[in-house]
Here is the input.
Amino acid sequence: MIKILFVCHGNICRSPMAEFILKKKVADRGISAQFHIASAATSTEEIWNGIGNPVYSPAKQELAKHGISCEGKRAVQLQKSDYDDYDYLIGMDHMNLRNMERITGHKGGKISLLLSYCGSSADVSDPWYTSKFDVAYYDINRGCEAFLEYLCKEGIVKDTAPV
Here is the structure.
């Protein structure tokens, strides 16, 4: 099983969008059983008394426009042990990468930037600040598609449908 953890600052916009976009992509291809996909935050800003906030409403609405549900998802914080528990820890921006490295105590290795799979060093801009949830969706969807293509090309996953 391939274990993937998407990470952003608060785990209420970009990383849950990535989690549920990739879950839909693998479900549509009939390969969900090969994956464990989750998301987490580098901060505790969206977690109160141990209970995470749900996905931010505009992010949830953007996913719904594309037929994707994220019901039940609540923010959780990245843990040091996640580096050992997951095969891929994928950040949405460079600040996420620095915070992921600080929290896990690991630099590089399993930690990567989502849009690097598209051959880009660009960040997925945070729609919390830009209000451009459609742009975030587009970039995250593009990154997830490229990541899935990478996994198939490398023979890490067996795909039953064209990518």
